[in-house]
């Protein structure tokens, strides 16, 4: 990590009085800085020199979204006008502190769900014709046998620990339940998604990447996961990550979203089916925790038994149909 003296000289900052790290974020490192003339967020990218283009793409999409009147937080320029600092082989960008407040997931009310839906729809509208050159794409192909083998590997890693805590035991239970589900499930026809229009999306639209002023979204951050996918994919992901497929939040969000850019329910149905099938094969969380020893992701391990996402979608669907 760059030293404070080098950082201050690079961006001509006043003395840094305090630093701290945010609670969220699992890919790149972020350090928050307090100075006498404002607060900043320093992003330290985990990219090699060959992948500098990813940072350039991220900064370009932020500028594009800002030009459409949306509250994306742009990186501050260096004296030479560039926004990326290469220091000792590592890349950095400095952002002004986002206005407003972050709201924990459990405190999101109907007003904020509506604000999130409207803002995402406006964002999709602004990105509708944006070139997907720097956006990720999802491989919708999954391999059941490979997933089961990975479950076996993760279970072995858990059992190799000297002691198992409650989270470890719960993880073992959920992994076994997921294996059982995979072994009896019929594969979904993932080709149905190819018929849906694809466009650039934020890719990680959730409350941890938003700031609020009252019931309005005042800032959108973390643009490094932009994704070329159907709009419905990002909406279903919000239903899953933010609202846990609970009807009140999902309905308020979708009603607000559709007031700007209508989204056919049939698109959501198709996408939800494929999304749920792919998520059943997604072991990223357990791989990070037990194979890569990334303890920061422990907070994301859900309590209780493994419940297939398609069941949660089926419970939500009647409420959405009544909108």
TrEMBL record:
<dbReference type="Pfam" id="PF01636">
    <property type="entry name" value="APH"/>
</dbReference>
<comment type="similarity">
    <text>Belongs to the pseudomonas-type ThrB family.</text>
</comment>
<dbReference type="InterPro" id="IPR050249">
    <property type="entry name" value="Pseudomonas-type_ThrB"/>
</dbReference>
<feature type="domain" description="Aminoglycoside phosphotransferase">
    <location>
        <begin position="23"/>
        <end position="257"/>
    </location>
</feature>
<dbReference type="InterPro" id="IPR002575">
    <property type="entry name" value="Aminoglycoside_PTrfase"/>
</dbReference>
<protein>
    <recommendedName>
        <fullName>Aminoglycoside phosphotransferase domain-containing protein</fullName>
    </recommendedName>
</protein>
<dbReference type="InterPro" id="IPR011009">
    <property type="entry name" value="Kinase-like_dom_sf"/>
</dbReference>
